Every structure is written in structure tokens, then in C-alpha cells.
Input
Amino acid sequence: MAEPARAKPKPTPETQHFWDGTQAGELRLQRCDACANVYFPPRPFCPSCASRKVSVFKASGKGKLYSYVINHRPAAPGFTPPYAIAVVELDEGPRMMSNIIDCPQTPEALELDMKLEVAFEKLDDKITLPLFRPAKG
Amino acid sequence: MRRNQVAVVGAAETTELGVIPNMSQIQLHADAALNAIADAGLKLSDIDGIATAVETPQQIAHYLGITPTWVDGTSVGGCSFMLHVRHAAAAIEAGLCKTVLITHAESGKSMIGKLPRSTPPDSLNGQFEAPFGVYGPPSMFPIPVLRYMKTYGITHEQIAMVAVAQREWAAKNPRAMMKDPITVADVLNSRMIAYPFRLLQCCLVTDGGGALILTSADRAKDFPKKPVYILGTGESVETPMVSQMETFNSSRAFKVAGPTAFKEAGITHKDVNHLMIYDAFAHLPLFGLGDLGFMPHEETGKFIADGNTRPGGKLPLNTNGGGLSYMHSGMYGMYALQESVRQMRGIAPAQVKDAKISVCHGVGGMFAASGTIIFTNER
Ligand SMILES: [Zn+2]
Output
């Protein structure tokens, strides 16, 4: 029997560019052409000024650890507890939920404001997730 | 909204609280509703307005045999009932209806006749939170806590004291689920759920319900029970995704709902005799004290740790024991409202002596929504 898999996102017309980006190894954000606001999650207008003139761009993939929990129970399907559920503050401003890899899942190792960089984890031929690891150097 | 134009004239919880394996969720709604109608000395046919959440108003109206002229199905999580009170007060004042029934019930423990909650994979939560292992409120609601602690210098021991103080209140409430005294060490040694939170910092999971009946203040004096007036109200929403809150140092929804209610009531924080802050998890009273303006966030942890909110303290908080110790069927806001009404009627098991103003503050989802109701027993 197959192991229970982690919840898999299903893109919509408004988010497809983001998931195409992760498949191509890019973290893609959107910037408003009118007011320069950078925002997430994806939508085809600026949530700050309502302009529909927005552009997709490749983000740096760098950020820092804003906050997290280390989940013990109940564990989500496809996860082995304890595992951290983190919110990463990207250098461009927006925050996103993710997991921290290549790092012990302990309060001692997971220091708030530690520098992180994006890493891509392929789930299948259609979906690659943006995860984060401690930044090198 | 004008002050003291609408009053609570009926209030009751389900006959039983806790584990109720012999009732479905809609029957729990009906049990609470019938108790509240009896409390108000009314007949079902007197009800011309209905509000409920999760279950639809048509479901509950039909099950009870009510034909309303005003309906509210606002469903924004556990504070939905605070919003119902606010909307009902406005509707009564506007003449849309005369007598409103608000019901809540949840078969949260026994799961009888309760639809499972699900997150579609193409929703924003399904795409941008679910894949990262969130699984139920304990894995999501505490996500802001570590940032809040770092920003304001709050300690694990201070947050543990929330659970300890509320257990002291619960001990005075015969209907509370958990009444045995606990210490900070007990809290910090209880089973880890989602670091930094342990079992005793997470709400209970129970079955139960409650209902309220509101009418105009002018009619309220003819009812059998002491009227409890609506002095001020506020509401807001922020985001269904905890990761997308504007900041983890505060709740934007709290900061809109709370101050709106205080302004409407025309009171200051010193006027508050009794306070309820929806505590699905132990950090919520800290966020509430700060965002409602009782004190700067930096002082919230120390304020609770120093005993100011426990029995005998200067700001009695969550006097039924709260979601941590009284009961929590999934949408606790109704039970917070019930305790405020009991305190204003002067009949609470842990009655605050001479209390005249009660503030009741609710949260919905993971800081997704908020509603605040300020009650008084003086007109
Ligand atoms: Zn803009």
C-alpha cells in the first residue's frame, strides 16, 4: 500500500504562473506596475491599489524565518512528526508558509530571523513545492 | 449603533455539556434553542428572526418550525455569534424583526450529524498552506506565538499562567469540564502538541451548544429575567490564511472589532468589570489584552502572570474557565457570550461582585475574524 501523500496543491488560472515557476526552479512573485507593491499569494491585480497592470518576476529566493511551530500531533498525511511548519519572510517583503529542510526540527536549531534560501521539492510531474533551507555563508 | 436599545432576554446552553453521544448536531441546536425560549418565557411562534453558523439558518428554522422575517447566516468561525448579536441588534433597531433567536451547537467530540471540514486543493489555503503540513487548529493557531514572544519579551511561563489562572475559575464552575488545579510546571510538562504549545495550552474538544434571544430594550422589561443590554459592538475579518496576517505581533481583526465596540459603548478600559477573551489557545488572551487596548502588548504576559486576571484579581478574565477548561465544541464564542450574560444577570457560578460592564471578545478561524460585544445591566 502506498504511503499517505502530503496534500497536493491544484493550480487555478490565477496561480498557474507560480506553480510553473517552481517547476522551472524559480520562485515567482508579482509586482504592481502602478505602485510597485510586491504581493503574495498570486492574483491578477494589486491588493494595495487595485491596478490590473501587474508583472510576474523571479524573486531572489532569499528570506528569513518569521515564525513557526514544531508539529507533534496530529501529523498531516505524508509528514513524520515532529516537523516544523514555518512562515518565511521573503527579502521582497511578502511572507509564505513552507517547511525548513536540511535543519534539525528543534527550537535550538530553528532560530527566529535566521537566513533562509529556497529549495525546490518535486512532488510529481505537475507540482514542485517551494521549501527553504538555512542559507549558506 | 445606539447604546442600550436592544437587550438579551433569553440565554441558555444545552442541557448537557461535554460528551453528548445521544444527540445529533441539529438536535443540540434545538436543545439550546428550546432552553433559551423557556428562559425568556416565550413560544417558538414568537421568534421572527434567526441567526446561526455552520448549520444553515434554513436548517435550524425548519427543524424548529420557525418562519422568520429576518435571517443571518454569517459564518466566520467561532466568533460568528458575536457578529450575529451585532447584526441582530441593528435589525431590531431598524424594525426588520422583533425577537431574534441565535443558536450555536456542535457535536465536536461525538461527531454526530456534523459535516467534516475540508480544504479544497485549488483553494488558496489548499495551495499555499495545506501542502506544508498544517492539520487542524493546533498546527496553525500557535504559528504566530514565537514571533509575538520574541517581539515583546513574553516567556513560556507567562503564557502557561493563562491556563493556570483559568483553571482556578473553572474550579468554581460546576459545569466546567476540567476543574482540578494545575501549576505552571504541569502546563510546561504536559504532552507536546505543536511547539511552543503543549496539551494544557490547547482548548478542549467537546459537544454542546447555546442560544440567545434578543429583543428591543423597551420590550425587555416585560420579560421574566433581568435584561442584559447591548452597549457596544464591533466586528472585522482579516485573512483565512494565518501565514498571510499583516503581522504576528497583533491581530488586525481584533484591532478593528475591539476599539469599534469601545467607541460605540462610550466607555474606557477602567469601566470594564468583567472580560471574556476567546481562548482557543493560550496566547489569545495576550493578543486580546493588547489589541483591545487594555495595555501595551509588552505588559500582557506579566499582567496575567502577576495574577491580575485570576479570581480576586483586578480584571476577572474568562470566568467560566474558558475554552481551555470550561468547554470548547469548536466554535466557542457562544459560551463566552453566555458567561457574559450570566455575569450581567448576577447569576454566574463565579460571580464578579457588582459587575456592571462585561466585554466579550471573540475570534474566528486562526485570527481570520473577530467580533466584540460589550454588555451592561444598567440602562
Ligand atoms: Zn498597486
Observations:
- The mean pLDDT of chain B is 97.
- Chain B has 14 helices and eleven strands.
- The first helix of chain B runs from residue 25 to 40.
- The radius of gyration of chain B is 19 Å.
